[in-house]
Amino acid sequence: MVKTLPFEEPVVQLRDKIAELREFTTTSDVDLTNEIENLEQRLVKLENDIYDNIQPWDRVQIARHADRPTSLDYIHGMMTDFIELHGDRTYGDDAAIVSGIASFNGQAVTVIGHQRGKDTKENIRRNFGMPHPEGYRKALRLMKQAEKFGRPIICFIDTKGAYPGKAAEERGQSEAIARNLVEMAGLKVPTISVVIGEGGSGGALALGLANRILMLENSTYSVISPEGAASILWKDAALAKTAAEAMKITAPDLLEMKIVDVIVPEVLGGAHRELDKQIEYLQQALLDSLNELQKMTPDQLVEDRYRKFAAIGQFAE
C-alpha cells in the first residue's frame, strides 16, 4: 500500500468514498452511478488543484517517499545487459553507490547512482544511500574507464549527503568528493546527471558536475536539508517548511536559476505512483540530452561543461 502524504489526505478520502459507493452498488439493488460519476469529476478537479499548486515542503515529502523509485529501478527499467562493477581498488566496495556498464537504447553507457534501500534491512546495508569515500572512488574509477572506452556517463543522484561518520573522515571523505569534482570537470565524454530524489550537499555534487543536469519534477537539490538550514538559521528544526520555501531547492526554482537544465515531468502524485510511465518520461529526456551531447567533440564537451558551471551565480549591478 502506498504511503499517503499529509497534503494528499483530501484526495485519499474522496477516493475511499468512491470505492465505498462502488462496492455498495455491486452488493445492493441501489444504482449510484450518477453519484459516482459526480464524485469522480470532483476527484479530477481536486487532484489538479492540489498537484498543480504543490508547495516546496510538499515536494520535499514526495522526494523522500519510501516508495520513490531508486537508481536500480531506473537502471533495470530503461537499460539492458546491466553488469554491476564493485570496489574502488583501494579500500573496498560501498553499497550506497551502484555502478556498472549497461546498454541504453542500443548504446553502451556507464551508469552510476546513489542507492538507498526499500526497507530497514536494505537501508542498513546501503547506509541509507549515504556513501563513504570508497563509494565516490568507485564512481571515479568507472568514470575514467568510461572515458578510456568512449562511453557516455549517466549518473543518478539520490542522497541526503555523504556519510559524515568518523570512519569516512579518516578515509578522506572530503578529498574523495573534491577529486570527483576535479576529474568530472575534465571528462571528454558526454556526462548527464539526473536528480531522482533528494540531492543533498557535496554528497550529491560529487556525481553532479555534468554537461546536463536533469531533475525530476518533485525532487530536491540543495546544499543542506530544510531541517538543517532551519536549525542553523533559527535554532528550530520545526521551521523546516519555512526554510524549504526560502532555500529555492525545487526543480522550478533551480531551472529558473539555470542550475539544472531540464525538468522531467512526474506522473500525477509522484514518480512512485506509476513506475513504468515515469521510466518512459525519464528515458525520453535522457535520449534528448544524449543526442545533443554526442554531436560535440571531446574538447567541446569540456568547454560546454566549464561554461555551464562558470555561469552559475553570475550577477549584474
UniProtKB/TrEMBL annotation:
For the biological process aspect of GO, one term held by this record is:
fatty acid biosynthetic process
Q: Which residues form the CoA carboxyltransferase C-terminal domain?
A: 35-292
What Gene Ontology terms describe what this protein does at the molecular function level? acetyl-CoA carboxylase activity; ATP binding; carboxyl- or carbamoyltransferase activity
Give a Gene Ontology cellular component term annotated to this protein: acetyl-CoA carboxylase complex
In what pathway does it function? Lipid metabolism; malonyl-CoA biosynthesis; malonyl-CoA from acetyl-CoA: step 1/1
Instruction: Indicate where this protein resides in the cell.
Output: Cytoplasm
> What are the protein's UniProt keywords?
ATP-binding, Cytoplasm, Fatty acid biosynthesis, Fatty acid metabolism, Ligase, Lipid biosynthesis, Lipid metabolism, Nucleotide-binding, Transferase
Q: Record's superkingdom?
A: Bacteria
What reactions does this protein catalyze? N(6)-carboxybiotinyl-L-lysyl-[protein] + acetyl-CoA = N(6)-biotinyl-L-lysyl-[protein] + malonyl-CoA
| Enzyme Commission number(s) from the entry | 2.1.3.15
Q: How does it assemble?
A: Acetyl-CoA carboxylase is a heterohexamer composed of biotin carboxyl carrier protein (AccB), biotin carboxylase (AccC) and two subunits each of ACCase subunit alpha (AccA) and ACCase subunit beta (AccD).
What family is this protein classified in? Answer: Belongs to the AccA family.
Q: What does this protein do?
A: Component of the acetyl coenzyme A carboxylase (ACC) complex. First, biotin carboxylase catalyzes the carboxylation of biotin on its carrier protein (BCCP) and then the CO(2) group is transferred by the carboxyltransferase to acetyl-CoA to form malonyl-CoA.
Task: Kindly give the NCBIfam families that the UniProt entry links to this protein.
Answer: accA, AccA_sub, PRK05724.1
Read off the PANTHER family from this record. ACETYL-COENZYME A CARBOXYLASE CARBOXYL TRANSFERASE SUBUNIT ALPHA, ACETYL-COENZYME A CARBOXYLASE CARBOXYL TRANSFERASE SUBUNIT ALPHA, CHLOROPLASTIC
Record's protein name: Acetyl-coenzyme A carboxylase carboxyl transferase subunit alpha
Which species does the entry assign this protein to?
A: Paenisporosarcina cavernae
